[in-house]
Amino acid sequence: MTAVPMVKAENVHKSFGSVEVLKGIDLEVAPREVFCLIGPSGSGKSTFLRCINHLEQVSGGRLSVDGQLVGYREKNGKLYELKDSEVALQRRDIGMVFQRFNLFPHMTALENVMEAPVQVKRESKAVARERAQRLLDRVGLADKAGNYPSQLSGGQQQRVAIARALAMEPKLMLFDEPTSALDPELVGDVLDVMRGLAEDGMTMIVVTHEMGFAREVGDSLVFMDEGVVVEAGNPRDVLTNPQHERTQSFLSKVL
Amino acid sequence: MTADVNKTDGPGGARGGGPEVIKAIPVRHPLRYVSALIALGTLVAIVYAFAQSDKINWGALPDYFFNDRILDGVVETMKLTILAMVIGVVLGVLLAVMRLSKNPVTSSIAWFYIWFFRGTPVLVQLFVWFNLGLVFEYVNLGPFYKDQWSDFMTPMLTALLGLGLNEAAYMAEICRAGLLSVDEGQTEASHALGMSHSKTLRRIVIPQSMRVIVPPTGNEVINMLKTTSLVSAVQYLDLFRVTQQIGERSTATVEMYFLAAAWYLVMTSILSVGQYYVERYYAKGSTRSLPPTPVQRLKAALIPSRNLSGGLR
């Protein structure tokens, strides 16, 4: 394993008001690793994922991406909140795919993919369009470039959303239950795209209920419950031979 | 939301080879004919009541309808409507963004502005602007401009400030509702891509909020067109003031009010058509296919209607 982990969490806490959602998460994600997060709903796995690109602010502990603290700067032992523009700069390198796709409905598939490179990186439209076409081709939607999201199926929308995140050439991709809002027959296409990404060496953190995907593609797996990591390890070991009683009862319900 | 049921099924009977076309006798609606007759009768009675009166000189309307001074008044009213709405929309968007800002200073300023300008009648505001010379004797912008208040505050400026600043308060609330109507996931997706707050607002949130903002704004434009008639109170020569003046000098006082009403109706009708097409434009992407325009629908209805057998008899 390389020296600097892509994501490093040390005793990460997160509270919403008086409700503590994350109660001290410790984990490390190595570069090029496919890291799967599973657990019952309300276990805090999505919240943890959203902390990684500062959509949520951690309330305790240290969380860093590629050696850089997320949302804060540490100077002389004191933490300083980052300005909005600095947070935006950190987010550039982290792609995120949402459960509900969140494509921009007033733009075509192609425009969705072009938007961030043109607006954030000030790339020329010609360059951005060329890359967007290539990315749409990669997710198997080259012929849907001119369609609006409302004219696409859920699976197609999610693949456009993946292309949109990839357009910023991120070093880390976050997937927040990417197939949970899809009809069963559309799940396969999205998982195929993700499998391709993993083969190309993308670092990925995937919150998922797709145990088959975790077993086949995942390099490590973490089972979370009630804001803590209950069990971690190789996905094949954890899924076939869970050590912890809570993991066993969860897996017996979903497998 | 705009699920249009296509009632004219085209030349359905001409389709060959398909299943047998159902030929049923449609449900009759006799009450529709009765109510239409009652409505028409009432309308005729009202028109007759006005037309038979020998106290109103109807000939004055066509005589004055395209009178130069009236046309000038129409142009002034339209100019005022457009300029006041531009002030209202620009300032309104700004106020809405300020109101939703995390910064407590800007949001309080916006709240105070809306509270004041929405809480006082626009006619009172017009008079206040007009008479502010009591407080400020001079307008002094250092080396650039210096003049007496009464010369500076022309009827045009009074009207624009009075109407525009008042409108901004209403537009701010309309825009705020529009901005809040956009799903939070849109902002999150945009932020996750590294877009800044202002870029997110400009590129993602505002375009989507337009669908909610445009219909009430069209309503505001029509409202503004009519509200401009208040500026006649501060010496502005708009359509209403011109008709009043003509009415006072000739003997056709009431006739001129009818004429003004007719012109206002013409203008608001044109605006309504414009509003329809603007709304259509901003529906882009929200519906799979846009419903046909009335013109398209008319064309579609006229062509197959020839071979309809059970039409009105």
H/E topology pattern of chain A: EEEHEEEEHEHHHEHEHEEHH
Basic shape of chain A? globular
Largest interface: A-B, 31 and 23 residues
Helix content of chain A: 25-40%
Oligomerization state of this entry? heterodimer
- The chain-level mean pLDDT of chain B equals 86
- Total of helices of chain B: 12
User: Any idea what the CATH superfamily of the domain at 67-285 in chain B is called?
Assistant: MetI-like
CATH architecture descriptor name of the domain at 67-285 in chain B? Orthogonal Bundle
Beta-strand content estimate of chain A: 25-35%
The biggest sheet of chain B amounts to: 2 strands, antiparallel
H/E series of chain B, N to C? HHHHHEEHHHHHHH
Helical fraction of chain B equals 55-70%
Low-pLDDT runs of 5+ residues of chain B are 7-14, 306-313
Write down the Rg of chain A. Answer: 18 Å
Describe this structure in words.
The complex is a heterodimer of chains A (255) and B (313). Chain A is of the alpha/beta class. Chain A has a domain at 100-169. Chain A has helices spanning 45-52, 84-91, 109-119, 125-138, 154-166, 184-199, 211-217, 235-240, 245-254, and strands at 7-16, 19-29, 34-38, 60-65, 68-69, 72-75, 78-81, 94-97, 172-176, 203-207, 220-225, 228-233. In chain A, the strands form three sheets. A six-stranded mixed β-sheet of chain A has the order 8-9-10-3-11-12, with helices on both faces. Chain A has a four-stranded antiparallel β-sheet with strand order 2-1-4-5, with helices on one face. In chain A, helix 6 links the parallel strand 9 (172-176) and strand 10 (203-207). Chain A is globular, with a radius of gyration of 18 Å. The two termini of chain A are 31 Å apart. The mean pLDDT of chain A is 94. Chain B has 313 residues and is an all-alpha fold. Chain B has a domain at 67-285: Orthogonal Bundle (MetI-like fold). In chain B, 66% of the residues lie in helices and 2% in strands. Chain B has helices at 30-51, 60-65, 68-100, 104-119, 122-130, 149-152, 155-181, 184-192, 197-227, 239-249, 253-282, 294-302, and strands at residues 138-140, 146-148. A two-stranded antiparallel sheet of chain B has the order 1-2. In chain B, strand 1 and strand 2 (146-148) form a beta hairpin. The radius of gyration of chain B is 27 Å and the shape is flat. The two termini of chain B are 34 Å apart. The model of chain B is unreliable at 7-14 and 306-313 (pLDDT under 50). Classes of the chains: A alpha/beta (255), B mainly alpha (313). The interface between A and B is medium-sized, with 31 and 23 residues.
